[in-house]
Amino acid sequence: MSSGKADGPGRRLPPDTPSGIMRLPAAFTAAAAGRLFDPVGRESEAESITVRIRWFGLCIGYLYVNLVQRSAGRPELNAMLTLGAFYALLDTIASRKGKVLLANYRIGISLMEALFIGLLCHFDAGVSSPFRFYYFLSLLVCAIRHSPTLTFATFGLHSISYIVLGLYAAQNAGDPAEQQAANEPATVSEFVKSGYYELSPDESNIVTVILTLIFLGWAAWAIIALTGLLKSAGQRLALLNEQLQSNQQLLERRIATRTKELQESQAMLVQQEKQAAFGLLAAGIAHEVGNPLASISSIVQMLSRKNSDDYVKERLDMVDGQLTRIQRTLRELTSFSRPTNQQESTVDVHAAINDALNIAKYYKRWKGKTATTKFSSEVPHIRTIYDQLVQVMLNLILNALDATNEGATVEISTERIAASRGQLDRIGIRVRDEGHGISAEAQQQIFQPYFTTKDHGTGLGLFVCRQLTRQTLGGEIELVRSTPHGTEFLVTLPMKTVS
């Protein structure tokens, strides 16, 4: 454990307390979450996938058009594919910039793709052209990018495009190009011919259209279902990630709270150990000094009784009075330094304040200062822990003495504070001084352990006051005001009276 370090003038920080838990940096977890579950990130990833699908289809189309031997249609097909490549290039540039090309005209894009694929099939081999599989790629791209509604709309446009293509092919069945297309190997035609019935070119085209539409509809349903499943899984993962981040933040707050409580407990333990050591030392001094004082007092009293000289007797009585004063001081010191009683008892708040004043009058900073009391007759005896109340009042009085100069006054007053409906009245104890005040910055930290504005302070006085008042006495302590002309603290205690 590392030692405490200074944090600005007059402040001592407690030793570092490791939490015992390793955590990833917040920036790393935030970046990872953003990449994996951010909706904008998912949309950008979908754009990237669809762009790659477009380029893949165009490359396959160029290879098919230019490597397969054909008698006609090659220039038209290359021109159409070049037009598609230009659109894919624009889509790629927009995707790199994090944008969606023609984002407000999505149904227009579907219509354009339906027309584009229909023309490719028309310039190639009609309804049996391999370009009809572009309809499937277009549906896949639409399902990845857009909603199921738009995907079904795209399926409808593609179906219309393909049906129109079939109708056009039927009307131009006599065209040589169409006859050549019919004579080319066709998967559906050959499959049917190898079976039970040989179809004519027109019938083969009709079967091809019907089967293609069926497969296209099935593909649309399957693609929508799969993409919907993926999107749903992504949303659930995003929700789980939010819950994970929330739990991590909650855990970090709890760790910070527990660490602070541990530091405060350590500070209280240090203060209690100091008080225990002081108590042992005071008891030892009182014992060692008390016995000789008792002997000296007895001798002085004996000499005073036997001596008839008035002058000598007067001086001996004066010595005996001073010895009695020393013995009373030792008794007060011993009483204060004894182990504290943690049991509640019936307590006179005013008597506890007077006891604290009797102890404070031996403080070196008491000289030249005055302490006044204004006790309210409405304050009754209450059930509380006497020793702890004396400790709180003594700390506040000593702080007030430290903050004032010679000739100043420290005032302690009591009052009965009326509570709101349904609550008990409370007792208020105010400690006012005529010191230099506390700065606004320091006011935010005065109750923190190890914080002090004194040159040689421990920074535990007000912290101990707050801990004892809250945890032991069940009350509260607050800084009411602090100006260059003085400071006022208020201690409120629950008025648990004795019937």
Folded structure, characterized:
The protein is α+β, with helices and mostly antiparallel strands and about 500 residues long. It has 3 domains: about 25-250, no CATH class; about 270-335; about 345-495, Heat Shock Protein 90, CATH 3.30.565. Helix content is about 65%, strand content about 10%. It has helices at about 25-35, 40-65, 75-95, 105-125, 135-145, 150-170, 175-185, 185-195, 200-305, 310-335, 350-360, 385-405, 440-445, 460-470; strands at about 345, 370-375, 380-385, 410-415, 425-435, 475-485, 485-495. The strands form 2 sheets. Strands 2-4-5-7-6 form a 5-stranded mixed beta sheet. It has a two-stranded antiparallel sheet with strand order 1-3. Strand 4 (about 410-415) and strand 5 (about 425-435) form a beta hairpin.
Could you give a short description of this structure?
With 499 residues, the protein is of the alpha+beta class. It has 14 helices and 7 strands.
**Largest sheet data:** 5 strands, mixed
Number of self-contained structural domains: 3
Estimate percent helicity: 55-70%
Number of helices: 14
Number of extended strands: 7
Question: From the helix content, strand content and strand pairing, which structural class follows?
Answer: alpha+beta
Determine the oligomeric state from the structure: single chain
- Poorly predicted parts: 1-24, 26-33
Identify the strand order in the major beta sheet: 2-4-5-7-6
Please write the string of helix (H) and strand (E) elements: HHHHHHHHHHEHEEHEEHHEE
Using only C-alpha atoms, the radius of gyration works out to 47 Å
Task: Give the overall pLDDT as a whole number.
Answer: 76
Strand content: 5-15%
Compute the separation of the termini in Å. 52 Å
Q: Using the alpha-carbon principal axes, give the shape.
A: rod-shaped
